[in-house]
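REQUEST FORM: STRUCTURE PREDICTION
Request ID: SP-0412
Submitted by: Lab K.M.
Chain count: 1
Length (residues): 206
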Amino acid sequence: MRDIVRSNTLLGGTHAVVTTVMRALRAEHLEQVSLLDVGTGLGDIPAHVRARALRLGIVVRTIGLELNPALACRARSPALPVVRGSVLALPFRSASVDIVTCSQVLHHFDAHDSRVVLRELNRVARRCVIVSELRRSWVAAAGIWLASFPLRFHPVSRHDGMTSVLRGFAGDELHDLVDSAVGASPHVRRRPGFRTTAAWTPRHSS
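STATUS: Completed
RESULT:
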């Protein structure tokens, strides 16, 4: 997980999410907002969001969700309460959190479960959903392999990094998946470090 944190920081994962959250915060003109980070790991991305938002005078109350009990305990802090639970059935009420973020989680699921995940993110979010994913590319896979040596990644991290990139999303795949899952047309942007973000206003059934 420490390798993932360094990868997020150095190779674009953190930047992709934080930049997209800041864009959403500016659009909403809010002074205080709640944010749920699904699959929060060690909680590094919510920490960066809080720090960036505070510089703009915005207070972000962050919550993490993590399935792994050891990670949940490690990430938990006064600034980041962490709830144990599955992204396939989020333990939160509908429209109970302003912004829901989910970074580099979706590619771990097959097509059916990916749609379940997206529907759950959409259900819980009140104002905005932000999904950040890897952009599938052999160039990116080779790049993470080569970068893993000077960064001294564990061999498992090196292998998982390459596998994750090759299970990522290319072209309009992320857009089409969101559209088919929740009936929303997300704003999709290509980000540095072979990242792609999809952001949309949630649609809730009446």
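NOTES: The mean pLDDT is 85.
Reviewed by: T.R.
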